[in-house]
Amino acid sequence: MGYSGRYHAASLAAVFLALAVGILIGVGFGSDIVNGTADSLEKSLHADIDNYREQVDDLQQQLGEQGQFSRLAAPALVDGRLQRRRIALVALGGLDDAIAADVRGSVQQSGGQLTEVAVVREPPDIGAVADASRGGSQRPLPRGTAFDRATKRSGRLLVRGGKGFAGLRAALLTRYSGEPGRIDGVVVVRQRPPTGSAREERDTDQLESELVAGMTDTKVPVVGVETTDTADSSITFFDANASASVDNVDELPGKVALVYTLDCAQGNYGVKDSADSLLPDLLAQRSSRCR
Length: 291
Hints:
Elements: H1 5-78, E1 86-92, H2 97-109, E2 113-120, H3 126-134, H4 143-160, H5 165-172, E3 173-178, E4 185-190, H6 198-216, E5 222-225, H7 235-240, E6 244-246, H8 252-262, E7 268-269
Helix pairs in contact: 1-8, 2-8, 3-4, 3-5, 4-5, 4-6
């Protein structure tokens, strides 16, 4: 027996009526459930917030105590470590006043003196550097070979001083103060400006590598430094050129690490992924010289 249209319509109406009644009943009960759940959740959240606030206060107190300890302990850790040592600061490309002040403060606090500051021209004038190195008396060499020898020699002259430095100084440096010779350690900052061409990029790479090689040849500590916010890190460059490094010289641990690396500690120190550890061995004996 088939269903009539009227019967079918009546069935649909009954279904919709039942749904409507169910929804109304559910809303009534659901409102009570939701309100109860919201009250419980609110109480729980308030308790959690109070708990977290207590934890934050405790952590802030601990950080304050640790900071105070560090400020008090740091002078004792570096006191006299670089006593009477002459330190040079060599900047590749440029030198910010802030980083120069960080280096100077670290050296002076440990008993040393910053006796030489040099800023190297980048990109270099290869012809001028090669000509200054020859001095008009040597057999002419190919452009690249003459430049390599001149820059490596310049690195040695910055540390040891000697004849020929005055001519190379004018060709190689944009800024210089102090006096070369009798240098006991070198701090290198790399703040390389943008170059205009691939050739200038290669020339600058060549300059930096040979200059640092010349300084490390003298057997004094050569330490590369940068700040925590340096966008393009140079730690891999320093590591590749056999130099220790400190990547957070703007922070107190970095200043301590700088003193210890100038006192012959080897490695990469700081807070970045390239660092071996935050600090060198602070119990290491003071070194008279690195050999």
